[in-house]
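Re: that chain you flagged

S.,

Sorry for the slow reply, it's been a week of failed gels. I finally had a moment to sit down with the sequence you sent. For the record, here it is as I used it:
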Amino acid sequence: MVTLILQNENVIPSTIPILFDKTEPKEVANAHTLYGSLLDFCLKIGVYPYRVPTVFQNEYLSKLNWENSLAFKLKSTLHPNNILAPNRCSK
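Prediction finished late last night. Pasting the structure tokens below so you have them in one place:
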């Protein structure tokens, strides 16, 4: 059930749902392990996630060079006190 959208010859956004039973701790652990592996692989090949689950925000940001990104510079300028949704999609 992978979704692919061809925007142009350089951009193909996609989603890969990880389906699991949230009431089963082993399935939750397996899903988190799988997501972590997919995140590592994608970052290694230069593919960045569209949305990162909140449980993975810190892990994701620790793997990026956040302080040198345009997003960091914009956020620091426009939102210097970091009071709205701190640690969501940024440090």
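What I noticed first: The chain has a mean pLDDT of 83.

Talk soon,
D.
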